[in-house]
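User: Earlier you gave me the apo prediction for this protein. Now I'd like the version with calcium ion bound, so I can compare the two side by side. Same sequence as before, with the ligand SMILES added.
Assistant: Got it. Here's the input I'm using:
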Amino acid sequence: MKLMLLAATLLAGCAISEPEESQQLEAITTAKAAFGAAVVVADFNGDKIDDLAVGAPGSWSDFSPGAVYLFKGTTSGLVAWRRITPADLDQEIDNNRFGEALAAGKIDDDDFAELVVGAPGSNEAFVLHGTSNGPSTSKFQKLSKGTFTDPDEDGGQLWGRQLVLHTEQPAFLAIGSTGPIAKVLKADLTRPVSEWFQLYATLSPPASSSTAFAFGYGLLIADLDRDGHRDVVVGAPGLGVYTGDLFVYRGTGHSFGAAITVHEQSSLPKARGDNFGMQLAFSSHGFDSDHEPEVAVLAPHFGGTGRLFAMKLDIANGALTGMHAAQGLPLESPENFPQRSLVVTDLDNDGFDDVIVGEPERTLGDHIQAGAIRIEMGSASGLGSASTLVWAPTSTPSGDLVFPDTFDLFGSSIAIGHFSSTSSSTRQLAVGLPQNPDDVDGLYESGAVMVLPIASGAVWPFGVYLDPTLF
Ligand SMILES: [Ca+2]
Ligand SMILES: [Ca+2]
Ligand SMILES: [Ca+2]
Ligand SMILES: [Ca+2]
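And here is the structure of the complex with calcium ion:
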């Protein structure tokens, strides 16, 4: 209830502020901001309460430098904190699409998490050093495609579109693009922040593979075989007619082994246009009773509707064993729609991990692409025993929430945090709807994030509404 009262306070505070010229200007610049295209959670200021970073890369059709909006977690919930744009980092303003991808975590051993921001429009990513006031705009590393890609390599476009940070020291950062290679960088903390990440490995599919396009749209760093060395899983879904595939690179401690191709070595059903591997998520103790590590894989167009696979990737002998496919998800994806999200967590604390899938293109009633999130619960027999569709906040005590509506794309991004307490028992789910609203006071497609409480093993369908006007 406290959270709901906070929601009312936040919204009321927003509503009574006077519309001034600066706000009108802000309304223009935030139109089509795509706020909520990405979300990431970390404790950026070291007070033990999670904070939320929201990417607002802008729309594809417009000139979009992009921005990241930071919300600070407090004992009374999330409050608007800071906004960071490429200009704040002294970067040239272009179609940067700063904020299209986000990653965060503690790279060095202080209390302040670092923020990694992808700017695929300019083929860059930025690692912002954490401080007591959050991510620094003066102490950062700029990662450029040209620095990490050989001239004779096809580095692809949209470098930095996909980022994965693994913070076990030394930290690894994996970066994907539309092209046929992915880069793994390793942090060297003896260097200044501006040179922290150095090239560790270049990953590519075997020459025999027919799927190289969009290599790295799915990315995962985890120790799959528990041998103490981190392994990398790369999803290369292709787009359109491609089947897609998954490649596993076993860590050796100083490099990675040859690609293990999942489709080639498995009896998984496959067809043209599945786009298998579009999104990946890792469960260290799995979805079923043997508690083996598992990887959740989305094939968004499998069978025309999409399917979620849960896989045990036993790579000890350079091969795969023990795979199984979970029940298919009735996704609605008639179009080529790569923006989809996937999160693994134990929602009901029963020891079996659960999966939350964003279905931003889902049509609800008359509302095309309003979007929804799908929750699949783990059990002794794995995923598929229970599922729920959460499609819209209903209302709060204060009454006046915006519902996911036509083209809102609710579910484009998902993250979980403890935004109002240091206690691990009070979790919330942040869900992006980057094309909301259709047009309200000039805020055409400015975007929003719903922050929904998790309680009693379920996501409550009402919560706090965040948008760029809070800044
Ligand atoms: Ca914090
Ligand atoms: Ca730090
Ligand atoms: Ca390993
Ligand atoms: Ca569970």
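For your comparison, keep in mind: Residues 121 and 360 are 22 Å apart (CA to CA).
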